[in-house]
Amino acid sequence: VDPTEADSLIEADTAVPVNERFLTQRILIKGGRVVNSDYSFDADVYCEDGIIRQVGKDLITPGGATIIEANGKLVMPGGIDTHTHFQMPFMGTVSADDFYQGTKAALAGGTTMIMDFVIPQKGESLLSAYEKWRSWADPKVCCDYSLHMAVTWWGDKVSQEMEVLTKDKGVNSFKTFMAYKDVFMLNDTELYHTFNRCKELRALAQVHAENGDLIAETSKKMLELGITGPEGHEMCRPEEVEAEAVNRAICIASQTSVPLYVVKVMSKSSANIIAAARKKGHIVFGEPIAASLACNGTHYWNKCWRHAAGYVLGPPLRPDTTTPGYLMDMLANDELQLTGTDNCTFNSNQKAMGKDDFTKIPNGVNGVEDRMSVIWEKGVHTGKIDPCRYVAVTSTNAAKIFNIYPRKGVIQVGSDADIVVWDPDQTRTISKDTHHQAVDFNIFEGMECHGVPVAVVCQGRLVVDEGVMHVTQGAGRFIPNPVNSPTCYSKIKRRDELNQPKAVEREAYEGPVYDPSQKI
Ligand code: URP
Ligand code: ZN
Ligand code: ZN
């Protein structure tokens, strides 16, 4: 976007007039504590033209710079949400947060980059789906973004297009679905081929892990039993149905020696399987989401249908109320590595498409705006993780896994000026009435969170300043994710050299061979 044109699109979200403070390309964040994933220290941070130019004590204020006073506050890399579905056509409707409203909400909450999924229909060209998603996102995104590609069918064309996507289109991750039978689901053979191709291209294989065949059968059974409400959604896909698929996905990935990324870890059992596989040396990453770290599945039994339906997503939240705390403990100990949201929102009238049949409730929840607060509250405020680990699981690990580090995910000279200034002493209460998302429901309604993003800098521009927002549609850029991420592939290269399968050299067998065509 031409910057002049972008400026003319600036939206004043409040009565505060657009002023120089929001337009300047020079920002000095003064007197804060810089927190990176490995180390925190007191320093000023100076940004110019979208890049961090200086980090150090008592920096001189350059002329024309906007100053952000950060005394007593933390200065952290902006959040990276690895998992969103903005304006996604799904289950007969389109998710409510589009790329404008979704990225604006992200910024409001301290997330300065999102990763969305291109999801082609079965038989559809991956490249044309990619262009479609770019045409939806590019004019609307207020922050930087990148794209994962879903593989929903298999064939030579898919294999060829995967190569083009990695070489020319900035895609380094391919998501497969083990659920949504007849819609997005792949069988084991197709999973094997997709994972194998990811390996050849040095891309990352991603998986939505749930046994879709079982879900198709058990959901019919629930309906036959007269269970039509949202509780049926959980009851036909209990946690073993998620865990079985996680185990199978790791097994298939292991046969192709590809790094595997399990999206939205929702249960203790699947998290345990990921942790056990990592212990054995598998390169597998687990992504719990804001919902699974803060909510449990008892909501599905709520007497209010709309409330219960608001929590329907796949895999579902778990009725075991100790699940969120358990997943947070695993995130703290690097048994799980990073966080997304699976933000895929539907308004009441959209959810109501399934009022008489839970299988028709569009699956998805919010999270993009509240992830940073929720993880601070449930992780740092509870003493489970320290601020450095918080930065790792909300930003740095995503940048490393998707191979855009150190451009993103760290406060250091030369990195993109995507920064959140965090006040750990302020609190806010989450509500659908005050959030910036398009959706009319919030799964974290009423949660009081310590830690507030008091200022957000995105691409070197101040976009959030003490609750006032000035975002620019289309100002976000598409960020290509290069293949061969060292975090995913450096160990694999050496392992492949050592583990090359070899045939045993032996004398040819010379004895008799049974001929089945001969009568005995
Ligand atoms: O329930 C969910 N997660 N909806 C979005 C589609 C998906 O599975 O990622
Ligand atoms: Zn999914
Ligand atoms: Zn998803």
UniProtKB/TrEMBL annotation:
<feature type="compositionally biased region" description="Basic and acidic residues">
    <location>
        <begin position="499"/>
        <end position="509"/>
    </location>
</feature>
<feature type="domain" description="Amidohydrolase-related">
    <location>
        <begin position="74"/>
        <end position="463"/>
    </location>
</feature>
<protein>
    <recommendedName>
        <fullName>dihydropyrimidinase</fullName>
        <ecNumber>3.5.2.2</ecNumber>
    </recommendedName>
</protein>
<comment type="similarity">
    <text>Belongs to the metallo-dependent hydrolases superfamily. Hydantoinase/dihydropyrimidinase family.</text>
</comment>
<keyword id="KW-0378">Hydrolase</keyword>
<keyword id="KW-0479">Metal-binding</keyword>
